[in-house]
Amino acid sequence: MKVVVDMNKCQDHGQCVFAAPDVFSMDDDGHLVYVADPDDALREEVEEAADVCPLQAIRIGD
Amino acid sequence: MTGRVVIAGASLGGLRAAEQVRAAGWTGAITVIGDEPHMPYNRPPLSKEVLAGKAGFESLAFTPKAAAADVEWRLGTKVVAARLAERTVVLDDGSAVSYDGLVVATGMRPRRLGCPGPLAGRHTVRTLTDAQGLRDELTRPGARVVVVGAGFIGCEVAATAVGLGVTEVTVVDPLTLPMGGPLGDLLGRALLKRHEERGVRFALGTSVAGLEGEDRVTGVVLDDGTVLPADVVVESVGSIANTEWLDDNGLDLSDGVVTDEQLRVGGFPDVVAVGDVARFPNARYDGVPRRVEHWSIPTDTAKHAAKVLVAHLTGSAADLAPFAPLPTFWSDQHEFRLQSFGAPALGKDDVRVLDGDPDGDVLVGYHTAGRLVGVVALGGQSAALNAARYRARLLKQPALTA
Predict the structure, then answer these.
(1) ipTM exceeds 0.95, yes or no
(2) What is the pLDDT, as a whole number, of residue A62?
(3) What is the mean pLDDT of chain B?
(4) Is B112-235 a CATH 3.50.50.60 domain?
């Protein structure tokens, strides 16, 4: 599965980190970092992360 | 599977309901009916980035999930009546649509000022069209702006207007502090100070008695007779639930539509409600039904309600725990952010600074009977991260009724 976050949109709300902590996290400065090719087993939580992103900045591919 | 799920309302709640009804296993037809001409779009930026011109209107469109690609969208169409006992809704063109399952997702509309006066120059901020019209007027040189209502929308619009270079922005509210209703005095004072330091003026503890002007508004009359000159008036004085179409079905529609703990409406197993129109008991707190106007609620309610509805329609047992979301909201004003987890409004009588200082980054805790029920951070990114650390603790708290 491919995950792309539009970093021009992202405002570091961190809601994706709660939804999918295996894929999204905050660095020490509070900025988003993420795994771009997570295992397919994580699809449900990544979809949840995309749903709850206030900026709708997360796109999921196959 | 034959049959049809009708979703009344085509904003975020309607979109998520359509996606989640599919995800829950419904293979029959899904029809979403919405009065706006647009596909569902994201509303929070309408008072912030989009109003400021930092993001285009086209950036707001949601991308529906592939699983919902066959959903029928009937846009620019309003549901005007329902006969729930007959499983039928009536549209504004007079046609009737029958359903097997119905999702109530018609949301809210802005409350308007009741006082007399001209209509031109008066604005609300709920729809794309609203925001376009307000932006056009805010960007006219020398515009004087009065915002009526010091809640979240009002304070966001005031901050955005100052950011656009408007020199005269005044916020009017009958309460003595901005956002004091939901957040309490401590943060209300901190927010007042921050807004004033950035050029927003306030007329607090006073109400609007009237509007001046012939063809368009030229001033706002306060209840002590003071007149605030105004070219643009923004009315951010709360909202009204769009439930008139549900009249005459024996439902409690006194403030939104009351649901049970599974988001079902009025004892009808085939009707559920989602989004800010739903007045639901939250099993996490005291079980009192409340409407919640947070951005996270359409998605949270849709996920739960879709499972409940599809289980009923397919004859399977859902066996779901009562709906118990952890509320969360944010608000961006000037360069600072408010970030909330839990239910601060339930703990306003016992507010404690958990970290920091109200003049800088601060984290505030709200308590009921000594127990933490909500946290709100005000400031920069480190304050918001600090609030997030309390989220897991709030999730683990036993229910208030326990």
Answers:
(1) no
(2) 78
(3) 95
(4) yes
